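Hi all, posting the design record for the shared folder.

TITLE: backbone redesign
STEP: 1 of 1
STRUCTURE INPUT:
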């Protein structure tokens, strides 16, 4: 994990002074846990959870909020402010500050979508088959979320059919019994779509 953190810290900034790093994968694939551990290895890097920008009515309709509330101010070197969505109250709540940092992690399904990739210094994909990930997610959330998951699965299928992230991933992350294995991703290069920057060194195991 620390080797990956080191490599990410060496990437050129991609959003003003910030290296914005996406952590994408199917729901239930372990993105939040991995992002939390990577943030620790990065010395306490901020983590933006896309669940805070999505809502019941717009499961994948958060692009404009991400661009206007987060990416634009960070790109100017300023502090971002975004209003997290409360999934129980079904409303957006008091804005939360997200200051610029050397690395900021953006975690969630669709973090590597087409509209976001130009602002990413790197994209990580949690390598777990979707059916296995969805099963894990359903078990985690219990029977009370069964109806939500039924709707979510169809929405996620549709999203990735139109706008896949995995082919553009710089790194693939596999969870092991202890730790993670990090491999070079399908993109072959590390960095935003509009600018090619080469990775440094072979795949790492952390």
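Okay, here is what came back for every position:
SEQUENCE:
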């Amino acid at each position: 994990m620390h080797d990956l953190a080191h490599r990410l810290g060496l990437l050129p900034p991609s959003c003003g002074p910030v290296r914005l790093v996406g952590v994408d994968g199917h729901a239930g694939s372990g993105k939040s846990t991995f992002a939390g551990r990577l943030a620790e290895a990065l010395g306490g890097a901020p983590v933006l959870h896309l669940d805070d920008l999505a809502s019941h009515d717009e499961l994948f309709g958060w692009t404009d909020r991400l661009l206007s509330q987060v990416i634009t101010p960070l790109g100017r070197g300023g502090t971002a402010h975004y209003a997290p969505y409360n999934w129980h109250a079904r409303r957006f709540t008091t804005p939360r500050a997200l200051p610029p940092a050397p690395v900021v992690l953006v975690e969630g399904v669709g973090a590597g979508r087409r509209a976001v990739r130009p602002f990413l210094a790197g994209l990580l994909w949690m390598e777990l088959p979707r059916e296995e990930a969805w099963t894990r997610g359903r078990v985690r959330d219990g029977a009370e979320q069964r109806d939500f998951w039924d709707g979510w699965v169809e929405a996620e299928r549709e999203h990735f059919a139109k706008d896949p992230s995995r082919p553009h991933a710089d790194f693939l992350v596999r969870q092991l019994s202890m730790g993670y294995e990090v491999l070079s991703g399908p993109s072959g290069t590390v960095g935003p779509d509009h600018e090619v920057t080469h990775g440094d060194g072979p795949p790492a195991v952390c």
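COMMENT: The first strand starts at residue 19 and ends at 24.
Let me know if anyone wants the other runs.
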